[in-house]
Design brief:
single chain; mainly beta; 4-stranded antiparallel β-sheet; 45% strand; extended
């Protein structure tokens, strides 16, 4: 009686037939360590909590402004962004462990004069 539920004398299937659609995105196995050090462009102070993305891999910087990702060899596009900061972008090739210093400029937003002019 595998896959069936018996109710009294009648037998009914345990589940109705069903189908589902889904997608899988495969990524190559990570081979290299990418270390990102995010700092304020003016003061050189660490930027904690910055988002670091090398799609599909992502991390946040720690209190020292450091994040580490394991990524596959080859071409990459790195984005580093933080609250009230202009994003940093770096494109390149990676074939071994590397450290990238991301300098993030503060985004002060428009001034009152800019908004009302």
């Amino acid at each position: 009686m595998r896959g069936r539920v018996q109710l009294g004398h009648a037998q009914t299937p345990a589940h109705e037939a069903a189908s589902a659609r889904f997608q899988i995105r495969a990524a190559r196995a990570p081979e290299c360590r990418l270390k990102v050090i995010a700092v304020d462009a003016r003061s050189r102070a660490p930027v904690p909590g910055a988002k670091v993305v090398v799609h599909p891999y992502h991390a946040l910087t720690n209190a020292e402004g450091i994040a580490e990702l394991r990524v596959p060899k080859g071409a990459y596009r790195l984005f580093v962004s933080g609250r009230d900061r202009f994003p940093f972008r770096s494109d390149g090739e990676i074939d071994s462990d590397v450290t990238i210093h991301a300098e993030l400029d503060e985004d002060f937003g428009p001034s009152d004069a800019e908004l009302w002019s």
